[in-house]
Amino acid sequence: METFNNTTKVVKDDLVKKIKSGSKVSIAAACFSIYAYQVLKDELEGCDEFRFIFTSPTFVAEKTQKERKEFYIPRLKREKSLYGTEFEVRLRNELKQKAVARECTDWMKRKASFRSNTTREGMNNFLVVENQEDAYTYMPMNSFTTVDLGCERGNNISNIVMRVENPASREYLALFNSVWNDKEKLTDVTNDVIDMISTVYQENSPELIYFMTLYNIFSEFLDDISEDVLPNEATGFRNSVIWNKLYNFQKDAALGIINKLEQYNGCILADSVGLGKTFTALAVIRYYEGRNKNILVLCPKKLSENWMTFRGNLVNNPLVADRFRYDVLYHTDLSRNSGMTPIGLPIERINWGNYDLVVIDESHNFRNGNGTNTHGGEKENRYMRLMNRVIKPGVRTKVLMLSATPVNNRFYDLRNQLALAYEGKQEEINEKLNTKSDINTIFRQAQKVYNAWCKLPEKERTTQNLLSRLDFDFFEVLDAVTIARSRHHIQTYYDTKDIGTFPTRNKPISLYPKLTDKEGAINYKEVYENLSGLKLTIYTPTQFILPSKLSKYLTKEETENFRKGRETGIQRLMSINLLKRMESSVHSFLLTVERVYRYIFDTVQNINSFIQNGSGKLNEMTDLSGATADFDDDDQNTDLFSVGKKIQIDLRDMDYISWKRDMEADLGILSELISMVKDITPEYDYKLNQLLKVIKEKEEKPINPGNRKILIFTAFADTAEYLYENVAPKVKELGMNAALVTGSIEGRTTIPKFQAEMNHVLSCFSPVSKDRDILYPKDKNNNIDILIGTDCISEGQNLQDCDYCINYDIHWNPVRIIQRFGRIDRIGSKNKVIQLVNFWPDLTLDEYINLKARVETRMRISVMTSTGDDDLINQDEKGDLEYRKMQLEKLQEEVVDLEDMTNGVSIMDLGLNDFRMDLLSYMKEHPDIDHMPLGIHAVAHGEKPGVIFVLKNVNAKINIRNLNRLHPFYMVYVGTNGEIIANHLQPKDALDVMRHLAKGKNTPDMDLCRKFNKETKDGRNMGRVSQLLEDAIGSIIEAKDEEDISSFFSAGETTFQSGGFSGLKDFELICFMVVK
Description:
- The protein starts with a strand and ends with a strand.
- Mean pLDDT is about 80; it is low at about 65-70, about 370-380, about 860-880 and about 1045-1060.
- By secondary structure, it is an alpha/beta fold.
- The radius of gyration is 37 Å and the shape is elongated.
- The longest helix is centred in the middle third of the chain and has 28 residues, at about 585-615.
- It has an eight-stranded mixed beta sheet with strand order 1-7-6-5-2-3-4-8, sandwiched between helices. Strands 15, 16, 19, 20, 21, 22, 23 and 24 form an eight-stranded mixed beta sheet that branches. Strands 11-10-12-13-9-14 form a six-stranded parallel beta sheet, with helices on both faces.
């Protein structure tokens, strides 16, 4: 009898001596590992027979479902231990398992047989070597692995094995033989074992490796998912017209949205411009209507036409068969208390609390959160209205927000939009999120990091840098509730065959026309100088009411500040509007200046007659509802345009002398402006003539053969009409038809007897993308080539038949410019190239921005003096001007995507949802992915040769979760030269690459595999790949050290020395993809 302590005296060495040629080996143990075979390879090769009993059920189907779950996991562990147990990680990381497995199966087919215990009865674990003259029994032999043979340490405190000789040994042998021959207790599993091991050296498809990665990383997520949060197929939404009109990436989004709405009650869809958010949202609406829910769509007035068309029983509704029945309201309707809505419901009788789903188009209009300008919350703003009327009362309301720009430079905007989903109750969402801090803290932190990042020098201010500074929790939140893809993402990760490609963008043409070429006439600069002298106190009478008399004029909802604030808002809007109209066209500018002049003139007359007669009343202007045509669509969406009560002010209660003095000064400036601008008639309007020149040149030299179409945008209806009147007759001479579409007046066109409603006009302007021939068969020959429109068509319209877009005025919000261009810069355009032309005022960008800044600052000073409150305009304005300047600078040089535009963060860089959805659909067809052996690989073709490793951290003491979102999984993409292409802190990049390489490749690429096998001698020589694996693990550890050191010097928890890595043993290789 002998004992082995397996540290100084090792079982394996003794077996080497005892197993001779002709020996018979019999083992009863819990599991078998190919690495144990590898250690004793030569001896086992020489033995006569090898019998193995799995002492617990292994490779045996469970009899009932009930037992299944409990035993499934341990059984799976036993079966998977064939490729090495958790303590043989190091061996597996040497990547030789392919070669070992091949030799092992070959040997098994010749010498080995395996049987498994099918009962729940226990049995001793031992190993018997039977030679001619004697037999040796080693016990306990818990498992046939390198640990039990004493080659690896494992996690046992002690690991003593005894060897007994005859006669005791014969008894063990007899016991083994009696069990071996008992058919009731054992069943033969030799073929299962061989099949299982041979999967290790089969060639695998890239797709399998991709899904295996996802399965490992997201399997916990799978446990959380229940059928309730997955779209319920029974509603038949996949058979709807809308579903079949969607592209793949839109379908992905729709399923993702339903899943998020079910889990978190809210979702922001922020796909970039031109990716068809409206259709994606309609598919979601269709799903919920199929479940008999009430749905409300809130959209800006200018976009209502679109939404109204899809719900109407109309000839030109392509989705008429889906019978949508959602309600549509404008954003501004939330601020009204009575009147009719666009779908004919009276506002005061709407059952607000009864909506199950609210879809908010352009949700960034709701980013201001609870009363920004109402201290003490005296008057509800539209955000609070939505919250208090629709979301909190009645049934549980889900909120889907559509926005092209959910994040600009303030993360709070995003939080305010999300708050709609959790009814403003923080605890609701905190429970559902898997984060350390609560949602408000998360956003506060993120904002802090962002502000610090903004102050960095230009070179360091990269998105990458910002992402590495932001907290893990922030990504968790975004991942949970947003879906955002950029065009770049779609082009890279989706098969664009069915979609078509995006057209190529030419460099934008920037034109800087002067006001006029008339001798001695006024120029932009002089106009601006004059404008900045205006006081416009006509709009702020409350400021001049004597303090003792003020209370007469205040109602109980209004405090003095609120009232002054509203007036200042109007005053500021007017002064900025004068600038905007100046930039738009001489014609619009003149109309507004004259209108303001008349208003001030009448008021001064009133005061003069009061001074003579001693009595007089003034009508105060409380809202702008009468002057909507003077404003652009974005301004009209503010609440200043809702009808307020007209209040009469008794002049005796006012300091009318100072007020009159201000107004008379304004009259002087305005009359001078009017006389100077009046001379500029259309033939001297230099900008207009330059536009005509551009149209003519495009007609003579089209950029795509035969395409004459031009889309002209302006912010104002007045300018649009002025252009139409001057452009239409001229282009008619060239044989082209023109049309005008503005939100406020009936459209017009040069085609005789043509009904110029918006959809009709757009269908004839872009017949292919708008299905004109199906929807308006009578108009097959009516083609509109020049379309002049305001921003009412800058969103949600597909006009990609056109290849030329002109911004006749540069909108103050750069997002609009991109959205305008997005009408023609869309997926599936038939045009090779597209062109953007921008008309800028004849000034340098600095002068231009400074002028704006001056007007804004001057307004701000008047706000402070009138209300004693300085945040009315919003403290971030200065930052906004800087930000806008950078954006405008960019726009002069190139056409950028929204997500590249912001120097902030676009939430595009952040979500992992696509991968989860991928995995779910794969699991439906391949439920057995959990049986895949670890450590397998595939070879795929890609641009950057190297290897993507998927590792799992197995040393529980270590956690560098601080930044890795996938902990305990780590993905590292190493180039062939050992350079790290994507490190473990950018898991999304690595997953994106993997997804791209694997998409649709469900069979192995045999040529590449042969090449790789030749290089590695069929897996026997994996030195190079092993080296890369060490580099990968090295990069994780190194990043950890850097992290430690920086966290040591920064505030917050230090990760310093909280258990370090020692390298290879701490990581288990899940799988890897070789990129050739």
